[in-house]
Each structure stands twice: as C-alpha cells, then as structure tokens.
C-alpha cells in the first residue's frame, strides 16, 4: 500500500475535513488543506506533495483547473480532480492539464484510495519511461555518430552533419511521432484545425517532451517568429567534446515541426556548447 503526502484543495471546510479524515485512516499524510487556487499553487511549491486532490469548482479568481494548469507547467506532481458535477466544457478544460483521475463527489474511502494508488503508480512509471527515453536518445546518438562518421576525407563536414540529421530524424519518426499524434488527438486537433490551434498544441507538446528530458524551456514570440530557448543541456559534456551532439535537439525540433504540416522552418541560432548562455531555435512561420 502507498503512503502518500497529499495536498487537499477544497473550499468547503467540512468536506475538506472529511477528506483529511479518510486519507489519514488510509495511512496517508495531509501536508495542508487550502481553499483556493492561488493557495494551492503556493502550497504545491512549498510542500511538493506526492499527489494533489483538487476540487474543480473553487471560490475566488482561480478555479481548480487554472491552478492545476500552473502546477502542471511548473511542477511534476500528479493531480486528481474532485467534482460534484462536470459539463463537457469543464471536462475539455480539465483534460488539457493531464490529470491522473477524476473522482465524483460523494465518494467512498475505497474509491479515493484506489485512485491515489493508481495515480502514483502511473506517475512513477511515467518518470521511469522518461528516463529510459532520455538514455536511449543519448545511446542512439552515440551509435549514430560511430556508424556515420566519414570513412574518407572526401566526405565533407556538411555532408556528415546532414547524414546524421537524417538518421536521427528517422529514429524520432519511429519513437516519438505516435506520442505526438496521440496528444493532438487527445486535444481534438487535426490537420484541418486552425493553424494557430495546431501551433499552440505543438508548442505545448514539444515543451512537455523537452522538459521530460530535463531541458528547461522558454518561449518568446516576435512577429512571425517564435524562439525556443533552453537554459541548460542534458548532454553538455558530450556536446563540448563533439559539437555534432548539438544535432540532437536540432533534429528533434525540425522533424517534429514537419509533423504539424504548418508552413515554415526551424533554424538553430545559438548553442550552450559553443559558449552562448542559451540554446536558441527560431521557428520562422
């Protein structure tokens, strides 16, 4: 049985106390009970709980879905929504935050515990899966470099870099495109959707993917260009020893952007390995 540290977000004090009582009887620890979305964000940052039980409808300027979105974007904490009702629009908003479950009020203690245990299991599995992907990407790139290095002086550096880009991009097609298409389907996005919606969904997906690899990402928009800026590099030592490793992220962005069918291209503007403070990629739309 999992003994979890739980943050309870519920604006009805009697209901919150009832949830706390259920959780403690199950062996879980309630790190704090808060009544608003604003306080939920602060408590999540302070306690970094194992899981958050988030009431969707909260008093104040920020509801549970808005609070969950902020927590989802900044902290890797699984969230289970609590709700007495949910219309289609509310569920659509909630799905974007990728919750680990929904519990309809009123609920039984056994139902609460089953949802918590399943959410924590899925989250731990997700963390392991991300680590495996990260290690496999690095291992594959090592292998690509070893197999694709020029065998004669007649092969130029430009030709070698293009060859590596093509090889690595093809592997991304096999490993990551299914996840991209699944995400787009989940959000109701297809190739006939508004280009702005496609772009927004893609940026959310690629930012989440890069974050799962340990890359801290920032987005800046200027007229017809969008800049992705990375302020760290998970393979900095390899990149400094061999700049070819910087093709890793370049291939990832160029190939995945092609999947959107949007017009434009992706260019690398700066790299940490070459001494710049950030890696910068420009999406020219």
Describe, in plain words, how this protein is organized in 3D.
- With 285 residues, the chain is an alpha/beta fold.
- It has two domains: 5-121, Response regulator (Rossmann fold); 149-284, Muramoyl-pentapeptide Carboxypeptidase, domain 2, CATH 3.30.1380.
- Helix content is 53%, strand content 17%.
- The chain contains nine helices and nine strands.
- It has helices at 13-25, 37-47, 64-74, 88-96, 109-148, 157-186, 195-212, 236-241, 247-258; strands spanning 5-9, 29-34, 51-55, 79-83, 101-104, 217-222, 225-230, 265-270, 279-284.
- The strands form two sheets. Strands 2-1-3-4-5 form a five-stranded parallel β-sheet, sandwiched between helices. Strands 6-7-9-8 form a four-stranded antiparallel β-sheet, with helices on one face.
- β1, α1 (13-25) and β2 form a beta-alpha-beta unit.
- α6 crosses α9 (247-258).
- It is elongated and about 70 Å long.
- The mean pLDDT is 83.
CATH overall fold name of the largest domain:
Muramoyl-pentapeptide Carboxypeptidase, domain 2
Counted by DSSP, the helix tally is 9
C-alpha geometry:
elongated
Fraction of helical residues: 40-55%
Largest sheet strand order: 2-1-3-4-5
Strand count, sense and barrel status of the largest sheet are: 5 strands, parallel
Class computed from helices, strands and strand pairing: alpha/beta
> Regions with pLDDT < 50 over 5+ consecutive residues?
none
Q: Give the domain tally.
A: 2
Taking Cα atoms only, what radius of gyration do you get, to the nearest Å?
22 Å
Output mean pLDDT.
Answer: 83
Number of strands: 9
CATH class of the largest domain: Alpha Beta
